[in-house]
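Practice problem: predict the structure.
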Amino acid sequence: MDDSRGQRLLGKHALVTGGASGFGEGIVRRFVAEGAVVAIVDLQLRKAEALAQALGEPAFALQADVSVEQSVREMAAALLSKLGRVDIVVNNAGIGQRPAPLEDQDAEQFDRIFATNARSVFLTARAFVPAMKRVRSGVILNIASTGGVRPRPNLAWYNASKGWMIAATRAMAVELAAYGIRVNAINPVAGDTPLLATFMGEDTPQARRKMIESIPLGRLSTPGDMGAAAAFLCSEDASMVTGVALEVDGGRCI
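Answer:
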């Protein structure tokens, strides 16, 4: 995919959680190509630093566990101290689950899924929305999933966490619209990322073929696909778009 197709985010300050790999990396790369200064927020600091070094001055790395309130507070303080303001918050950090009957998942795994996929959105909102309200501007983008719209069997609690994220996106959008803050989501279909093996249970040619056969366009999604969609939704080209959960899914949810 050509990443040199404009500067729609020129001068914007953005953060991408889980930005060191997978869909997050695709979003970071596209945002930098579109002119943004981007904080790559990730638990894996070395990976985040390596990506920042590869992308140059517009990108920098911060370590945070977005499921932990104190960690998010410290990350937000460091970020606001460095940049002065944050225009775009992308809640991309998330974890999956291995396929299993819903009653076989233990409470600890359930809590981990919701802490990372749901509580993190709550914590970043607490950290960044007040400043966005003061300037009456900002964009929040939540990376949800087609699982929140058209669930696959044996992924019940992951699906539920992404359904929560879609509902939260709409609730945030209607409440924050009066302050000029837009909130949207992306619903990716299964992608060629490190999480793919988790969802499939095993990464084999047969498992991949079965997954691809469920996608009408006949391929897995890519980090570049998510970067392109995110750049649009976070740019002024989407200034009239809020409360949308955009399916970037090759037709999976039709």
